Batch of 4 targets.
Target 1
Amino acid sequence: MTACRTHELTALLLLLPGAAGSLGAQQHAIPLPLGPGAAIVQTLGFAGGDRESVHRVLDADAEGLVYEWDLVEVQANGDTARQQFRYREGSADVVDARRLWAFHGTEQHEGAAQPETHPGYTMHALSRALYRRLAAGQADSFQVMTVEASGAQLALGGFGGARETPVRWRGTIAPATPGTVPFPLLVNGRRVQVPALRLRGDLTTRHGRWTPEVWILADSVYPLLLKWVGAFSQPENVLQTTRVDLPAAGLAGHGSVLDAALERELDSACRAELPGIYFAFNSAALDPASDRAIASIAAILARHPDWNATLEGHTDSIGTGAANQALSERRVEAVRARLIEQHKASAARLRVVGHGATRPRESNGTIEGRARNRRVELVRDCAAGKGS
């Protein structure tokens, strides 16, 4: 195991599904930095709605973490734009950088064989050196590289290419409140509260002053960025990490515990929320990061040829009831099609139903609540009794 993956995150705890008293009811530390197959889901709240982006870890070695972001944007008129970004967050920068790179430009990825790199900058976390001072209640110097563009472009994290103008913001970052505060996060589909530092930046450029509020994970190994209020220097933007999904292999010593826990939940409760399934914004197009979760579902169904099940689609409340109903139906149809076409699941054993926004798990009044409500559940037909 390389140096980049030997640490364990002590602050972020994973609550696995399962019956009380089983492994599923225990808490496990997550290895950090995140290993291959892990995904960070960020939601950008802006005027008009939310937009999610899934950043997958492709590789982790002594040089750092390589992320991939497959961006699919569906416009109101039906036009679809696609981009893929690959970038490396360097191990040395995670140790002591005091600068953050907050966008990715399309021109740097056309035909590029290697991931985009920006030495001296972190991308998904603050550095350990910064964290030590902030955790001790001290301010430190800080820079953010973002872009000058419209709010819509910024909502896509820099999508738009030639129209972007890089802007470097310089100043300080300091604790906004003493100690740590609880922060809501979905980890493998389970709601947890993690300790966070609440910070305030005071940054300037020739364009003016920017004073974003920032929350970071209270962890000295990888202080993951959890939330920005005023993201990308746009006052109405709120960028929030809403989910962290980990493959079973990422849980040191536990092998396929996540798949086993999901299987137990379907066996005992006949219903399970499916982590690791992602869709393009306002679309039923499955993100490539969903492949592993869908393969796991197919494997579970193959081990239980007597199980019949229904895929349920759920949305948040943004948009009309009719639009949300239709979207929820298209999304579960897409999951069913992938299970049948690529994994040879029996079509006769899989039904689909969309519920739109009618069955929320959490309040639609928060970014994290809306992210939780956008989900797919698998419901086993238990009418004939357990084991049917």
Target 2
Amino acid sequence: MAYDKDLSFIYKNYTRLVFGIGAVKDLGAEVDHLKCSRAFVVTDKGLVEAGIVEKVEKALGSRHVGTFDGVPQDSGYHIVNEAAEIAREKGADCIVSVGGGSVIDTAKGMAIIVSEGGNLQDYQGFQMLTHPITPHVVIPTTAGTGSEVTYAFVIKDWEKNQKLLYGDDYLMPNTAILDPEMTATMPPRITAMTGMDALTHAIEAIHALQAEPISDTLAYGAIRLIMQYLPICVENGSDLVARGQQQIAATMAGIAFSNAQVGLVHAMAHCVGALYKVPHGVANSILLPHVMMYNMDECADRYALVAEAMGVKEKGMSDEEAAGAAVDAVFELTKKIGMPQSLREVGVEEEGLAEASDMALCDGSIVYNPKMVFEAEQVMEVYKKAF
């Protein structure tokens, strides 16, 4: 899957990045930079209990007008609408999200409603916005989703038990504060699953149909950092240097896949997440090597690039041999950091794979997969191997 001689692409990255140990102290100045004065914080109860939100509120000072801490793991329409209504009542002119992917995604939805009114359901689809919305500052407390630099978010329709994807250039956060101290309390399991989410973003960005030289370079760099630093973060969460490098990797991977897109791994992971509440990073981790094997005959040269970034491509290897080494390296990494090895281990039921396969065909991510997927049976074969 080499670049076509007529290659053309559009590259986007609008988010201002502020990185450094203790960088959260710059939050007030960053809000001022956006010409905002009434910041509303969105987070979850665990981060409030851990004392992390208090640091954020202190950094905001008099700019802080309220906090919503009711975001669950799989946030839903009703959560977004409720939190947005509170923010509007407080007169918020800026949203500050403190947390992982679910919190950041909730805040992206809120930014629409605080600006435009109505309910989130009114804006379902892609590129539905016509102008900038409420400014959004992200402070990630995990290092995996890349949501701090992406133009999309996933929200769950709890009534239909389905995850829905929104996308719009105006959804890209204005600023992301990457402070390694904000991730230092992440337990090993969360560190591992979010890290595998980032690795999946990077590898899928390299094999996706919209891959191009800039996203390739970011994804390649992200893979190198993750292979080196993720095991350290899992083993010793207090290592702030490793935490910081993993944060940078997750952000690089986020920028990469925002431009190149993802593929079948995400389409399948969204479905088992919706049906069986499998955490996204866990689903990605289990499915990634199996999807790579499915795609192998279409993009061995792309996986050879992945192998090179992983440090497992040896001199004289063919693309096919290097691609196989990359798959093996993914399996080995997941074992090393203690990730589940099968869907069965995380509560997925075999009789539910057919429904998940049908759902995956309707997921927008699937259209960018390097190997075309036309039938649910093709998806089912991959699910079975991962089961």
Target 3
Amino acid sequence: MDARTVLVKVRENQPLNDDEIKWFANGLADGNVSDAQAGAFAMSVYLNGISKKERVALTLAMRDSGDVLKWNFDGPIVDKHSTGGVGDMVSLPLAPALAACGAFVPMISGRGLGHTGGTLDKLEAIPGYRTDLGVDRLREIVGDIGCSIVSASGRIAPADKRLYAVRDVTGTVESINLITASILSKKLAAGLENLVLDVKVGSGAFMKTMDDARALARSLVDTANGAGCNTSALITDMNQPLSSSLGNALEVMTSMECMTIGHVESPMAQATIALGGETLVLAGIARDAAEGEAMISATLTDGRAADIFGAMVAAHGGPSDFVANWRDRLPAAPLVRDIFPQQKGRVQRINGEALGLAVVHLGGGRLIDGALIDPRVGLSHVVRLGDVVDQYTPLAIVHAANPDDADRAVAAVRAAIEIGDDAVAPTQLIHERIA
């Protein structure tokens, strides 16, 4: 078998068999497939598509191109994945909340991508927190505490790492088939039994329309279930930031408020509760969504999720007293400034992607691969759709490293938030469930 044979079949829109797909995935991982051949494959899939059967086979082949984790816990293995948004730190309270309900959560997460924040970057705002743990230590922490949030090792789905880099430079990142295989190959390599997907839609998401979000959610759910992982998805709103905080340390603060003060009415907490309830139903811990949501909500208000989060932080090298003293342990920016609107009125629209990029330009994200992140910077107290603002009510508060960065953020936030006089209809957080 050779790459040229596979490429001709994909180019001519002929179905690939499982052996051909497996050979190509292994070739991506071991170098027998060149960058040019990987690019040709990605472009052919982008233009011609592949069948559901081929998509499942590609996902499994990319999963099996490296290590696949095995677990021996007395309880269900679960996880959640978000397609990326702004002000979305759901993973931080959700993992310990699920663990408090009897699930085991080996959460392999990623870093910020484009305008969206990354779970690993948020956790590394906590002094000492290490995300690069080996498999044996990951297994110990999950077994002892119930959850652990780590980065993927180089041996997790290496075929995807190679293909992703090629997609990024060949204009094929948007292929739903390749997005699906990329996301799921890494998640399934974690040995999951149950997976809930948070597919974002709106101005702050990669999928801007319901049709696109629905197509991605359906592809992910069908493929994951076809690969043997019990999976469903919620399509959630990202036409405004999920939280009022954007930026790594600021988002950790908001997560701690949710777990220690019990602020379960916020959109971020409600998303956590909805996704957690869905996960508990999939895992057989709750009979229905209402019972699952009540169980998750209880862990956020009675302190169990906070205690498990604190134990996880300590196990990863962070402060042992983090839950009691998180306000003192997290870094703070040296310059804090209110961003007032240039006119009085009601918030009509919010460009979430623009707000996310404003945080990136403050230093809270990466403009080039491998760049260092400033965990202190970001935006807090960001307004929501329908809020009334004036010269006394700011659009947001900027946390910056210096005055020049603050000035640029002020201009970016004002440009991203449209003010007018019209009434604004209430927004719906959960748009659809895809099962």
Target 4
Amino acid sequence: MAVQKIRWYVKAQLGVLLLPAGLCLFGEAVIRKGIQTWSQLAARAGSNQAMLQAGPWFWYGTLGLVLITAGVGLMIESGLLRGYPKTGPN
């Protein structure tokens, strides 16, 4: 019985941690893609500014979406299988 409660708690907390981590990675991917697009436009316009390297924005975004989905899935699964703590005598 105690193992089931611990397993439920770990799944719920892992979901709560994965969701914002995924949102942060996805936001980072959006920022990096914006920087890359801006630097390409600046290079086309003949600007002498230094080109900023955006990095692998695609993989940041992909990993972010995977973490978002995993976090939401774990939170939903922990809520559907175990439910919230029951109130009253049982």
